[in-house]
Amino acid sequence: MIRSIRAELVKLTRPRFVVIALGVTTLFAIVMTIVGVLLAEPATPGGPPGDVRLLSTEALADAGGGTAVFAQTAGFGAVFLLAVFIATVAGELTRGTFRTMLLQQPARGRVLAGKLAAIIGFTAVLALVAAAIGWVTARIIAPGQGINVDRWTTMDALGAGLEDYGRLVVFIAGWAAIATVIGVLARSVPIGVGIGLVWAGPIENVIGDGWTPGQQFFPGLVLRALINPASAEISTTRAMVTLGVYAAIAAAISAIALKRRDVTA
Question: Which of 27, 36, 103, 214 could potentially form a cystine with 208 if both were Cys, beta carbons 3.0 to 4.6 Å apart?
Answer without folding.
Answer: 214
